[in-house]
Amino acid sequence: MSDDCLFCKIIAGEIPSNKVYSDDDSYAFHDINPAAPVHVLVVPKKHICDMQATSDADEALLGNLLLKANKIAEILGLKESGYRFVINTGPDSGRTIYHLHLHILGGRQLELSAG
Ligand code: 5GP
Ligand code: ZN
Question: Where are the domains positioned within the chain?
């Protein structure tokens, strides 16, 4: 846990969140400012800054993050309609939180836009 990290505080329950899923290594909760009818964030419980901070040693963590996100998308009822995963990395991505997180977006037809 990083003491000054918002998502570490959410994982620890120090800041409230609308939980969707939790297990030993992952936590998922609804985004506070949803960009789609379904917008959930999936985070590893281990504090890691972003994709650029990962290495070969994080292969299991990253594989687990994707597979958990798939499972959570199914829990959210998106299996048939479809969904999008987004991981913002670095300044141009507009990333605001420095704890690795995967966005699950769905619930409507999504346009292929980078904007
Ligand atoms: P980023 O732009 O860093 O990829 O995404 C960060 C996301 O975290 C944003 O979509 C933002 O709405 C969400 N977020 C920021 N602060 C909070 C919070 O306190 N609670 C929740 N549930 N989501 C948050
Ligand atoms: Zn953190």
Answer: 6-106
Q: Which residue has the higher pLDDT, 23 or 3?
A: 23
Strand order in the sheet with 83-86: 19-22, 26-30, 38-44, 102-106, 83-86
Superfamily of domain 6-106 in CATH is HIT-like (3.30.428.10)
Within 10 Å of residue 1's Cβ, how many Cβ atoms? 13
The predicted-structure confidence for 15-65, as pLDDT tens digits, reads as follows 999 999 999 999 999 999 999 999 999 999 999 999 999 999 999 999 999
101 catalytic per annotation: yes
User: Going by CA atoms, what residue is nearest to atom 20 of ligand 1?
Assistant: 32
Considering the candidates 30, 39, 47, 101, report the single residue annotated as catalytic: 101
Question: What residues does ligand 1 touch, defined as CB less than 6 Å away?
Answer: 6, 17, 29-33, 41, 88, 94-97
